[in-house]
Design brief:
Layout (H helix, E strand, L loop, with lengths): L1 H10 L3 H13 L9 H14 L3 H17 L1
């Protein structure tokens, strides 16, 4: 549910709120199982980039890639 909320917020250019949704998913153990942990980090990267936080966006993207490669 939070992943869908984050995507909806991003589609409406509400990137800070989307980032909060993704961070909440990552803060809750087990919450990301349905969403896919790599996908959450990828979406988080997109939100961070839109907010001009490029370094953090790259770190989130690196984490998404690391997780995807491990699966």
């Amino acid at each position: 549910a939070l992943t869908a909320l984050g995507r909806m917020l991003q589609a409406r250019d509400r990137h800070a709120e989307a980032l909060e949704a993704y961070d909440e998913i990552l803060a809750r153990p087990g919450q990301h199982k349905d969403a896919g942990l790599a996908r959450v980090h990828n979406n988080r990267s997109t939100a961070l980039k839109a907010l001009g936080r490029k370094r953090e966006a790259l770190e989130a993207l690196d984490e998404a890639i690391r997780i995807q490669e491990a699966e």
